[in-house]
Amino acid sequence: xxxxxxxxxxxxxxxxxxxxxxxxxxxxxxxxxxxxxxxxxxxxxxxxxxxxxxxxxxxxxxxxxxxxxxxxxxxxxxxxxxxxxxxxxxxxxxxxxxxxxxxxxxxxxxxxxxxxxxxxxxxxxxxxxxxxxxxxxxxxxxxxxxxxxxxxxxxxxxxxxxxxxxxxxxxxxxxxxxxxxxxxxxxxxxxxxxxxxxxxxxxxxxxxxxxxxxxxxxxxxxxxxxxxxxxxxxxxxxxxxxxxxxxxxxxxxxxxxxxxxxxxxxxxxxxxxxxxxxxxxxxxxxxxxxxxxxxxxxxxxxxxxxxxxxxxxxxxxxxxxxxxxx
Length: 326
Fold this sequence. Notes:
Layout: E1 6-7, H1 11-24, H2 28-51, H3 58-77, E2 87-88, E3 91-92, E4 100-103, E5 111-112, H4 113-120, E6 129-132, H5 133-138, H6 141-149, E7 158-167, E8 173-181, H7 196-201, E9 206-208, E10 211-215, E11 220-221, H8 227-238, E12 243-248, E13 251-257, H9 265-282, H10 284-291, H11 296-319, E14 323-324
Parallel strand pairs: 1-14, 2-5
Antiparallel strand pairs: 3-4, 4-6, 7-8, 7-13, 8-10, 8-11, 9-10, 12-13
Helix pairs in contact: 1-2, 1-11, 2-3, 3-4, 3-9, 3-11, 6-11, 9-11
């Protein structure tokens, strides 16, 4: 809390620096894990840079492997023992279908990278499932608006919100608010905001200067000593509220997903790039059809926007810092 954001135009260098410090401060198996994470980070960087020199569909394959190795770097720093057993993507393109991706559950026979990533981000894979590509794209915040404009979804669902941490006058009780513009009530189903976990946590809405305000029901006693722990607990509570983020030039913007699907939005980003990258290798006719039809803007936008969003957010999660564009 109160820590300055990391402004960097080169998140790769920052990531390597963070991991190298962890390597120097570690011993035994921990040192091996962080050394392995550093290798995956270097590999991811090489794939990203190689992707800059080619066009789609080849570009999609390189970007997928760049994002996959960023995930493996992240998982290594979180204690997942990679390189010790059989590893698989945890995803495939089901036979006899088009524009679909199959998600596989965690297996005892090896490490399922995608399932481990979903679990680490709080949206575990509960079983084998087949997902429509349109659902994958529409559940990526930076692509959702385009999906709506192209009629892949009926109605937009990402509600722009502002989150405030507030104190009482004596500075010893902390509470939070989520605020959004009243103008969003018509185009978005904001009546869904006060549902499930959010209904348990927030009071009924109040109106303030053209804004809809939801205030937390409970206050937390704070002082200089317990403030970091209280802040961390609130972040854990907010992780249940289906809030997604997009990095912009002015920092992160936050959105409440009013119709959440199964997986964290970063998991959906990896899922989308898996389809683009894998179809380029094994489904050339499907890629050719997509690049010459209604899917083209979504494929090209995914390759242009999603990898950078994924990079900054994964670096932030791996380093436990707020890494943003300068």
